[in-house]
Amino acid sequence: MPDPAGEEADMLLLASTEPSSLCYVETADIDGETNLKFRQALVVTHHELTSPKKMASFQGTVTCEEPNSRMHHFVGTLEWNSRKYPLDIGNLLLRGCKIRNTDTCYGLVIYAGLDTKIMKNCGKIHLKRTKLDLLMNRLVILIFMSLVVASLVLTLGFALMVKDFQGKHHYLFALHTWTAAMESFLIFWGFLILLSVMVPMAMFIIAEFIYLGNSFFINWDINMYYEPLDMPAKARSTSLNDQLGQVQYIFSDKTGTLTQNIMTFKKCCINGCIYDSDDEHGILRKRNPYAWNQFADGKLLFYNKELEYLVRGQQDAMVQEFWRLLAICHTVMVQEKDHQLLYQAASPDEEALVTAARNFGYVFLSRTQDTITLVELGEERVYQVLAMMDFNSVRKRMSVLVRNPEGSICLYTKGADTVILERLQKKGAVEETTEEVLASFAEQTLRTLCLAYKEVEEEEYKQWEPKHLEATLLLQNRAQALHQVYNKMEQNLQLLGATAIEDKLQDGVPETIKCLKKGNIKMWVLTGDKPETAVNIGFACKLLSQNMLILEDKDINRLLENYCRNESEQQRAFKVMTHQNMALIINGEFLDQLLLSLRKEPRALVQNAVVDEVPQEVGLSRMDFLQARRISQMWRTIGSSLTQSPSVTSKIQESPEVQRERAFVELASRCQAVICCRVTPKQKALVVALVKKYQQVVTLAIGDGANDVNMIKTADIGVGLAGQEGMQAVQNSDYVLAQFCYLQRLLLVHGRWSYMRVCKFLRYFFYKTVASMMAQIWFSMFSGFTAQPLYEGWFLALFNLLYSTLPVLYMGLFEQDLTAEKSLKMPELYMAGQKDELFNYSVFLQAIFHGALTSFINFYVPVLLSSDISKFGASSDYQSLGVLVALSGLLSITLEVILIIKYWTLLCVVSILLSLGSYVIMTSLTQSLWLYKISPKTFPFLFADYNVITQPANLLVIVLNVAVNTLPVLALRMILRAVKQRPKKKGKEKEEAEEEPSEEAEVGTTAKVLRRGIPTRRSSYAFSHREGYADLITQGTILRRSPGDISGDTILESPNPSEEDLPSSRKESIFSPRKISILARMKRQHRGQGSQEEVGTDAGSQTGKKPAPQRRDAQKPPASDGSATSPAVTSLQASSSDDQAFHSAPSEYTLASQSERLDVRTASLRTLPWKDPASPRPSLLQVPAKKHSHSSS
């Protein structure tokens, strides 16, 4: 399979042309991640299958699990040559991934067709129906059943009357041979046909035109047009527009949907001084400020003139060490392409750091198994790598021990501030200032790393090296032993500074989420990424806030267990607790255990997958103990404040799985945000289905990749973003947008308008139908229940076609209660659609009652006044009565539509005039003499309207009918509006008075009990999906050999290390939730500035007054001798370190996930291609400076 082929089946990787049979893949269509990952063949197949002939003769048997949807799990064995070899997901190439930077790979098909994992994650196509559409269907059925009942009642009246009539007028029945029963039967069908005009079949036809028109308005909206991609919004479904105004839950992907997946070096702090970019608007970049550096990358957006002056002046040692650390301490691989250096990193943030160092003159040029080559301001220097202490989720740091060309040994370390600050040699003014800078960066939602270094004495290294070598040779507990050895070296560091990286969000994402929250729309993020990354993005886009209580898997499990025990006290506490400002962070394994009732796979498989993934360990760590204590304090605090409330009755008939699901959805629905990490495409769909099952709400899913297709198809509304991950999400969506921020306008403007228009249309249509046609029922009481029609047949035929259609159509297409700008400024109005306020059974019954009252007045007023108006010469015959009722009904419903339309335009006036004009024209035709002569039975109402209108008494009756129908209703509406507005104003004043202190008080009381005491900074190491591939570098596994070392008939290029030496793939990820905002803590400390006891009791708080961070051009004030030690540092010293948690047991706050293997493809780095003397054309990357090197015995 050549590069860049896409997988069409799930294959077992047997061998590849890469070193150690590595294969680099891109899994954007599976989990949305765009960085490369690697898969590796077994050692035995790598060594044995070394040629195409051997590959063709391969005879092996694979025994594996049945096809399933778990993307990150695979268990199987390969039986070959009478031996068995274990297989896992690291040996599998999944369908949907793309092979990159790999010439050729060979594999064995395991699953194909519908059995592949990606196909198992694909959902079925669901017919999507809106809530209003379903309600319309039920109402039409209800109307039809009502008409059947009305026909039966009227038939019963006919049966009773016909006996009396037959006794008095027996001679009239001589011509009829039918019995009374047969007459009644025919009369029943006559009434049913006569009243069938009340079944609003025309409503469905007009509704389709309204849906289609509103879809065109979405397509034509210039404010949702994205010019860079020439991409307008597009409504691919025309029947879901009104449901856009009723969305309560949004399920969003992260990568490519909320973010651009672009890492930008934003700021840095060196020795306590902040260096921001001087080129925010890109003016300097046009002049290329890095022209002095031939290796500079023109794409870097960061530039600071003062920092450049310090770097090129080579006077500040701290600045030099800062950039040297960024150029040395990493696992980035480099290759040359078109005489340019190309960096390939496991995570984009690490590439951004190395690129920044490159632009400031510290260029990472190449690496070998034990050396790393830099170009420092034009001078090439080779550092010998003595040890590479890799990053993992427990260490949260990476260190490189090197010997520089001068012979001295230095340790360079970068990592999260929580682990770097507690390993510093001293904590002075610079360190305190750096902590404030880190807090400032965190407030700006930037991802930070602390940088530190130390010079290692030769004697210290000689004592440390044997221990390191001994730990690397262990066969058991190697990782723990290495961790201890590394930790001994990484002490007494000197702080250099900090970096700040921005994961660029799409334009307007925080503002959009904030506005949607005001509209009572809850946002869930479902991503295949790791928890730390998702949480960082949650803070960046304002989905999470610093004062939120963040609950994770273990917390949720405890809460659900207490809830399901059917203890009234615990359940009341559960409900009270959920009123706090909370967020949930859960992962795919938790969902595997939770969604058992929704999955179609065997329960045992799900449990086995979890057991295989997370080995259970005995014992509790210190962090577990602290968490358990905090949870118990939380129960006691909340339980003491409970008032007597009725206990929640548990549903005995429900299974435990269903009860657990219901409790989880109830908990999640009370949270401000929910983030699901490391979830598969099928799990995304199951989460959406879970909320739909227990909440009965309208859901919207938005994504841009193939891994979002199942979620998009499962949600009530699917929105596809036209991003960089293909068009599969777009092709399976109902609406297409180019940017996430356009979702705000789609819902709050077009969605609310569509819902309001359709609701008004439905209410008015039911009203006008009943108001005009129910007079047939009243007339039947005066016609002996004989099913004789009151109106002219042409009036019945043209009523819904011409006479009343255009105003209804205008209202359904163009009605606006507010402009688009005001709709965006007042998102609270969106809640009317969520509550079904504009159209429901109550509104329907009101419309029916209003219509019935109108028809009653229109019919009985002429009947009661017929004897009086006849005195003035007006005719009171059957046809005149029909015309009077018809004209009164038409004018009454026309005046009603005039009153309820709020958006008046010339088109509105034209539609009303055309409707009334069509009645005049068509009535003149159907009642004309020449048509009467042609067919008297078809056109029996000869000049009926003319005779009625020409008589003033009839005109007065029509005016009276319209006035009686309109004025009381108008007065009632004004009274109700005035009554509703009064309590709202008083309520708003009370809310404004209580709103300000409520949040601060809530944070102050609740957070004291629930705070975990972890700093709020977020490390940019969150973007590393696994521990690094330092082992592959130091062993030479990932490095190519020179072409001369490759034999002619072999496929594979280097021996494979034992599987024990490969980096561990099952590390648990620990991240620290945030509890209280930094600003709130600083305000609170400022009030009690002099009290050190308060600082001791609240170890996680900040100091009230510290030396403010300053830029380089401002002189930094010296630290006061009497200043207290930083509380943040005190907190770090008092709390248990990550090392203790590592050696005891997994943390209680573990979000275990199947981490993807790191993924770098490199060219030959031992023999640099641009330094080959035989090369016919010299490379532009040739370094003219003097070369210094040092070799150690």
UniProtKB/TrEMBL annotation:
P-type ATPase C-terminal domain location: 730-980
Transmembrane listed as a keyword: yes
Domain of life of the source: Eukaryota
Main location: membrane
Gene3D superfamilies: Calcium-transporting ATPase, cytoplasmic domain N (3.40.1110.10), Calcium-transporting ATPase, cytoplasmic transduction domain A (2.70.150.10), HAD superfamily/HAD-like (3.40.50.1000)
Comp. bias regions, Polar residues: 1088-1104, 1122-1139
UniProt family annotation: Belongs to the cation transport ATPase (P-type) (TC 3.A.3) family. Type IV subfamily.
Stated name of the protein: Phospholipid-transporting ATPase
Organism: Mesocricetus auratus (Golden hamster)
Gene designation per UniProt: Atp8b3
